[in-house]
Amino acid sequence: MDADYTIRPITDESSEIEKEQAAEILTLAFRAHWPGAWETIEDGREEVAEMLADDRILLAAQSPDGRVLGWIGGIPEYDGNVWELHPLAVYPDFQGQGIGRALVEAFEAEVRKRGGLTIQLGTDDEDGSTSLSNTDLYEDTYRKMAELENYADHPVTFYQKLGYKLIGVMPDANGIGKPDLIMGKRVD
User: Fold this and answer.
1) Mind listing the pLDDT tens digit for each residue in 103-130?
2) What is the pLDDT, as a whole number, of residue 131?
3) Rounded to an integer, what distance in angstroms lies between the CA atom of residue 22 and that of residue 183?
4) What is d(CA 52, CA 14) in angstroms, rounded to the nearest whole number?
């Protein structure tokens, strides 16, 4: 797909329509794979409102008519040396068309501009999508991380293609055998 969208910040001054579209995308994008994450439009609205804080990043991919197609957020940590990528959501009808990649690349550029050195993110495996689920990650942790396999189109592969590395796991973050995969990338 040719890039028929632009990436720009969403701020407090952005239209209520843009904010509402961002909230809707969050609920729709996560509903299928991560039940319980931003289940309602109100949950999405609350997340968007939190991401509008002055010290955070919120970038949106918008079509020429202004429709929000996807968005990415960032939270500073460690005095701004590290930024958490949280969240990344693309409207389901537009997934697989390069919007997520473009949002991550724009986010990386913004983090670099703000003096950040590293981006980290967590990507949960609540449904057995990787070899790190349904296993005791307190045993042979590093071997299991090194032998990571993606069984069901888990986002870990998307991030790996963009240069992110598995830098840790949080065992049982979402219940027994349901870890959070911690990924990171240096952006300096």
Assistant:
1) 999 999 999 999 999 999 999 999 999 9
2) 98
3) 24
4) 10
